[in-house]
Structure formats: structure tokens, C-alpha cells
Amino acid sequence: MDVLQLLTRVVHAAAVLGVVLLIAVAGRRVARRLRQPEVIGEITGGLLAGPAVIALAGRPAFDAVLPGPVFDLVKTVAEAALVLFLVGLAHKLRRGRDRLPRRATTWITVGALVPPLATGGLLVGLIALTGDRAARGGAPLPAFLLMVAVTMAITAVPVMARILADRGMSDGVPGRLSLASAVVIDACGWLLLSLAISLGAGDPARSLHSLRALAVGVVCALAIRYALGTRTASRLCGRSPRAMAVLVAAAALAVAFAMKHLGMTSILGAALAGLAVPHDDGGPWTRVVSTVSRSGQFLTPAFFVVTGVTVLTGAFSATSGVLIAGTVLLGFLGKGLGGYLGARVGGQPPRTARRIGALMNTRGLTELIVLQAGFASGVLPAPLVLALVVMALVTTAATGPLLELFDRMEGRPAAEGISATAMAPVESVETESGAR
């Protein structure tokens, strides 16, 4: 490839990314008008953009506008952006649960994790009962069962944090308990996701290869943690945070794409790199990670477009209405009812438990990341991914209206939440503008 051809592809890809960002802006504006988190508009617009163009203009016209080499370049940029964004998300998983009642937090975590995992088994049973071969795919049953269970159990910490901030619930009892439990659930979800991908290898040799790739990622993350824990790194972080942000971003990208080259998903590499960065709760390292995460967040809409083109284009006609309806229903019941019962067993009053049940159904971007990992590893087929995408969008979009409904039922002003006087206040979760 000559330099002129490469430059042409780069300019073409940049133009495509510019269009993607315009779609994201439009999606955010629509979401604000509908009183939804902005990320819902970005996700929906991005996912539907590619399939809509293909449906209206045809695949040949789409390929002419976005030829394979340019699409591959856009896909690489989207994956790199997602890796950088995930560094911040994984880093936040290390936040502590300050002065929250252990019994309530534990039972909410159990209630919002175990029943949704069980609904994953019910969804697999529904697929088997209906004989839906397209939704079953060809993955080994243990990997398929575990992957579906994980997709039903995920809660999106960033989207939940944004909803809590927008509604003034960050310091309220339901918000604090829900967020603390969601952090634990997502940490468990990443571990189960890696296990499902390893099981999806299909034979012991390939499973060992996946585990070896995971071990390489862990070793690299430990090396990053050791390097960043030195005094030299700390001084550089304080004096030149931008330079350190570049180094952290480069290290995260190296680990993520190395794991992808070894047969694992780059998502796990990004999560490991984010967990390796020192945690200082608002200090220089937090600011460095925020810089890295924001740089990736800016281009994450490209991830939605790539997902829509690669996953959803051929899935619309192959996904049954029964599968979508069953997935949405099980999604609501597992998280909502499980979170409610967990809060009640943990000693919370019904009004608090209702809000916790609604908040735990927030899935958002984290669900899409898990689905992309499942699809890329061959464990989840496209028709089931589409049903799970619909479930994620519906349950996340329903969170705000459900909270408003509970407020009206109890005669409370909208977005008031539950008073935090029952507990000592804790620091609210950090959210940036446009956080996922």
C-alpha cells in the first residue's frame, strides 16, 4: 500500500467518524427531549444507523460509501476508544463502600446477581423449548449458558451513576446501596465473562490457550501496577499528568490488543489495565484515568455503529418476537424482583426496595460491551444478541419513568429520592459530562 492510498483511507475514516459523532449528537438531543440518559440516544442512534442505511440504500451502496478497508480502520479506532473508556470504568470498580450497612449491601448484591443468573438459564430453556436454532448458535452448552446468564445479570455502573446524579439521588439510601452493589456485581460479571469465553473454546487445548492468554494479561497488569506504584511514577503523575495519561493509555492499548492477538477479547485487557492503576480517590491518578477515559468516551459512538453493522444487520429477520419478548420480560423480573427482595431481606423498607429494584435494571453500555465480547468469541449468535440489545435498551430506558412513578405514588417531588438522613453521607460517585 502506498502512502497516498493510506492517507486516503485515513481521511475517509475520519469523515466517517465525523458523521458518527453527528449521529451521536442527534441521539443525545432526542434522549434529552425524552428525559432519558444521553447514552440511550447515542446507543440507539449508533446501533440503527448502519442497518438503516443498508435497508434503505442496499448493501452495495453501503459498501461503496464505507468499503471494507475503511470500515476495518473505523472498527480499530472504535475498539481502541472502547479500551480507553473501559480503563476508567474498571478503575472505578476499586472504589470502596464507605459506611454502608454490610447486611443490606450483601443481600442486595445477592438478590440482583443470583436471580438474574437463573433467568439466564430460563432464557436458554426458552430457546431450547422453541427450537430456535438461530438463537442457540453452535457454542458449547456450558459456555452458552454461562454467557447468557452473565448478560442477564450485568448492571451498568456508569449509567446508573449518571441517573442518580441527574435525579439528585447520589447521596440517598437507594442510590448508594444500588451503586455499591452494582460495583460488586460488575466485578463478578467480568470474572464470569472470562470463564465463559474460555469455555467457549470448545476443547481443552483451546481452553488452555485462552487461560494462557488471560494469564499473560494478568502478568502485564501486575507489571503496570508495580511500575505505576513507584515513587518516580507518582512524581511524574503529579508534575505531568498529561504525559502520564499518554503512558497509561499506551499501556492499556498494548495489553488489550496483545490479549486479543492471543485469542481473548481486548475488553478483558482493558479491564485489567484499569484495575492496575493506583487508586487514590480523587487524587492525581484519578485525574489521569479520567483523562484517558474521556479521550475514549469521545469516540465510543463509533463502537455502537460498528456493533450495529457487524451484529444487527443480519439479525433482524432471524430474531423471533417470542425471543425478544421473553428476553425483555426475564430481564425485568430477574433484576427488578431480585433487587427488591434482596433489599427487603437486607432490612430496607418497601419504598427503598422498590427504587433499588428499578435502579438495578440499568444495563446500558456495559451490557453492550459484554454482548460484543460474547459475539466476538463466537458464544452468542447475532439473533440472540439483538434480543439482548433490545432488553438492555428497554430496561435502562424504563429506569427513570419507574422512579418517577414511585415518586408520584408516594406523593414525593420528582427526583427527590429517599432522604439520606438515615445514614451518614458518603462521597457520591464521580461522573463526567456525558458519562456512560
UniProtKB/TrEMBL annotation:
One of its GO terms (molecular function) is antiporter activity. InterPro entries: Cation/H_exchanger_TM, CPA2_transporter, Na+/solute_symporter_sf. Residues 21-403 form the Cation/H+ exchanger transmembrane domain. The keyword Transmembrane helix applies. It comes from the Bacteria. It is a multi-pass membrane protein. Keywords: Ion transport, Membrane, Transmembrane, Transmembrane helix, Transport. It holds the Pfam family Na_H_Exchanger. The chain crosses the membrane at residues 6-27, 39-61, 73-93, 105-129, 141-165, 177-199, 211-228, 240-259, 302-335. Its main location: membrane. One of its GO terms (biological process) is proton transmembrane transport. It is found in: Membrane. GO terms for cellular component: membrane. This is Sodium:proton exchanger. It comes from Kitasatospora xanthocidica.
